[in-house]
Fold this sequence. Notes:
This protein is an all-beta fold. The chain contains no helices and ten strands. The chain has strands at 4-7, 10-13, 18-24, 34-39, 46-51, 58-60, 68-73, 78-83, 92-98, 113-118.
Amino acid sequence: QGQFEESGGGLVQSGGSLRLSCVYSGSIFSLYAVGWYRQGPGKQRESVATITSRGASTTYADSVKGRFTISRDNARSTLYLQMDNLKPEDTAVYYCNMRGALSNPTTSWGQGTQVTVSS
């Protein structure tokens, strides 16, 4: 299995936007359903959004629905997360991985990218 590398995080004011990117180093990225996850301070890691292998179907956590958009470019083996109307509660380290990664105890996680939203 390949590795995921996240980027694009930063410090933004409430109401602002960020676009996260995630590059997959393994082969055949287009075969996999993948997703974004986050872990806020003192919180457990949670699923934020998922997307099927060809991008035909997406799911979102209720807390981000209508504000975040997940997309992918299989030719570039890259996953994206457009985050609009950010709120302080979105502050977290954001990770990408296979869909269902949270329920797999052997999942390997990358470094993630820090998103901080100031009020």
